[in-house]
Design brief:
With about 350 residues, the protein is α+β, with helices and mostly antiparallel strands. The chain is built from nine helices and 13 strands. The strands form five sheets. It has a three-stranded antiparallel sheet. It has a three-stranded antiparallel sheet with strand order 6-7-8. Strand 11 (about 245-250) and strand 12 form a beta hairpin. The longest helix is centred in the middle third of the chain and has 18 residues, at about 115-135.
């Protein structure tokens, strides 16, 4: 698109703290003055002197390319949503609060659901943190906290528990700027399978043991692992594509054999072994010995491994165990732990 679009930030308008942004179209020399311009991905918040100016700028943006199609949404009764923020303009004063669509149902993880208690607690903290960061006044923050309380109560949460979480949240926010005194505790992470009451009892026992041995500078954080229904029901068809494998090939006419590994589709690798134009030792053996064939249509899979180092280590172990005739290298990696030369008496 042969269009030059330049943006120039002008002088600030008095005490409003808003700078003018001037867009210049290099091809038509048109200028569009925007009082405020904020963009997040494809969402743009802009302020104009009038609705006509806004529509002129919209038409200019949509004329830059045939695939560009912006839409416009103007403020209604001094209110304008932008992302999850609701902008409220009253008497030339701008305030912000949390915005929710009209289709918002308020349904979250129920208090009696089979979900770790820490995630239920973090759900409330997340909603409180968003309100704390967005709301511009205490009145709006208090109103948003009340909405959060009602939503959580509709999802089975106890009112007193919600209030206790709110109090701890505000106390933590008030103490964030205080300097930390004393040694920083060392954090240890433990992963446990989530079995509800059994997991909670085990976590309680761990913390109790640490408190008895007086590990003041030690803090244990527990993470949970979950099982899904799909893990128990293997009803989906398995893909015919095999990759990240260590494979074994053997000649049908002699004792030549080969061990290899590949991260790609194994069928693509087998085609390379069967192609005499490649530098494969298997293809070279077939070329030098007419009538000899390998089981490239159905190679024997020795192991699977996604990580490169572990896959090549398994290949080296297989080479050491099978001792294939066609492998030029003795191993992929030096295995000091296993590759110990035999003592000859």
């Amino acid at each position: 698109v042969n269009v030059v679009l330049e943006a120039h930030i002008g002088k600030r308008d008095g005490d409003s703290g808003v700078a003018d942004v001037e867009f210049c179209d290099g091809s038509t020399q048109m200028r569009y003055v925007v009082r405020c311009f904020t963009r997040y991905v494809d969402d743009i918040l802009a302020a104009f002197e009038s609705s006509e100016k806004a529509h002129e700028f919209l038409a200019f943006l949509n004329s830059l390319h045939g695939n560009i199609k912006f839409t416009i949404e103007e403020e209604v009764m001094g209110r304008m949503p932008f992302l999850d923020i609701l902008l409220i303009r009253e008497n030339d004063h701008m305030s912000t609060t949390v915005y929710r669509k009209t289709t918002h149902s308020g349904v979250y993880a129920h208090f009696t659901s089979f979900v770790p208690f820490a995630l239920k607690l973090q759900l409330i903290r997340t909603l409180l943190h968003r309100a704390y960061e967005i709301c511009s006044s205490y009145e709006l923050l208090h109103a948003e906290f009340e909405r959060i309380k009602l939503m959580m109560m509709n999802n089975g949460y106890n009112r007193d528990y919600i209030y206790s979480v709110v109090n701890r949240f505000l106390t933590r926010k008030a103490s964030e700027n205080r300097p930390f005194e004393g040694p920083k505790p060392k954090e240890i992470y433990i992963r446990l399978p989530f079995l509800k009451d059994s997991t909670y009892k085990l976590e309680k026992c761990i913390n109790s043991c640490l408190s008895q041995i007086k590990c003041g500078a030690l803090r244990v954080k527990v993470f949970y692992t979950y099982s899904r229904v799909s893990d128990r029901l293997r009803f989906k068809d398995r893909s015919s594509i095999i990759n990240n494998a260590i494979y074994y090939l053997e000649c049908s006419q002699c004792e030549a054999n080969y061990v290899g590994e590949t991260t790609r589709n194994i069928q693509d690798r087998m085609k390379e072994h069967a192609d005499p134009k490649t530098d494969s030792v298997v293809a070279k053996h077939i070329l030098e010995n007419p009538g000899h064939t390998f089981n490239t249509d159905s190679p024997k899979i020795l192991a699977f491994e996604h990580k490169t180092f572990k896959r090549r280590t398994k290949e080296a172990l297989s080479i050491q165990k099978i001792n294939p005739k066609l492998n030029i290298q003795e191993k992929s990696y030096k295995l000091f732990l296993f590759d110990v030369p035999r003592m000859v008496n």
